[in-house]
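Bug report

Summary: structure tokens for Major facilitator superfamily permease differ between web form and batch submission.
Environment: batch mode, default settings.
Steps: 1) Submit the sequence below via batch. 2) Compare with the web form result.

Sequence submitted:
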Amino acid sequence: MHEYLKNKGYRAIINASLLSGIGDSLYNIVFIIYASSVPNKKLAVSLASVATLIPGLLAVVTGALADKTKHKVYSSIIVRFIQCALFILLAVLIGVQSSFPIFLVLLLINIISDTLGSFGNGLGMPLLQKLLPAEELNSGLGLMSAAGTTVQIIFQAVGASMIVALSYNYPVFGLVNAVTFMVAGLILLWNRQHLLVAEKKMTINNSSEHDHRSMRDQIKTAIRNFRQNNFLLRFTCLAMMVNFLGVSMSGMINLSLLTYKEIWLGNYGYSIVLYDMSFSIGIILGSLFMNDFLKKAKTLTITTLCMLALVGVGLGFAWHKSIVMIVAFILLASYLIGKINPRVSALVMTSVDDDQIAATSGVLNLLALCVAPLGQALFLTIAGKTSPVYSWILFTGLSLIVAMISSYWGHKVVEPEIKNQEEVAI
């Protein structure tokens, strides 16, 4: 919070990110509701849900493009204004009588905007690395994560309520999203001098030979960073295992609640909100309190504790008897996740060259996400064909195995320290 109050460049980036997040959170939930109103609604809702994964899968490409972009500050501003224009177009089209072809056009606009947003985030990462002192990276990124998650929770609920209050006036939400992107762009434009100082530091540190590298070379270099950094390589393998398990949790919880009323809080809807909110609150708290008793703990040690907490979640649902036990372990697991993500982002920022940060992060995100659909298919198929209990038993066993692997690697792998790149050069 100290850096947010005194660092104008960091404050500009986080404010612009939050405004963009407000628009996205409002519109994403509204777009799902809109999809349920068009012909072929089941297919439309499925496509709208799957489309949210596409920007993540393209993160390697958008990251490489962001690293190769010279004028990152002005490019970040232009991206926000392009997103604004896209949602003005969307607001016009969504007012036309609903049809499946119109829905597909709107879906494409949404995908393009989200992909541009991923590109914009890649542009901002090396700027943050220059704006924040090394000792403040963890807490600075933690604050961004906590604020982003809070915005998502609040404005998804606001969006679901407002669309009903406004009698499903979808064009209004398109315009609201356009305004949030426009204001985000104006904030960056107003504070561009502070951001250009950070960009100038990057220009000084980068060598001219990087300007002529192809995107393919950038991606190869990003992959090489993982192969040469033993910690990042091991952590990425763990992230793949964790996502294989964790991404399927939401669907498994929903199926379990359909079957076992003894873990309800009043009714089915309230129960889903309880478990979802527990996860989100845990991440917010973990991201905010970066300087707690786990400050000096190794990242792989925190990952081990997180997996043991997921073992507790699995046991809670397998027994399907104790709401308190389930919520407590969800809070613990998500609290630890809230600490891990900013740490790894900070390590990436300080362990690779300025012009490789976004591409390296993109590789990490792609590898971590690529196995998630396999986990969903496995656990949800078992839960649907047999019983959710069997899915949770398998989930618990695999979580315990991953915890053991993480613990072993935690003792064998040296975690690099977060240092300023200027210090490394000296």
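Above is the batch result. After comparison, the two runs are identical; trailing whitespace caused the diff. The CA atoms of residues 2 and 140 lie 9 Å apart. The two ends are 30 Å apart (CA to CA).
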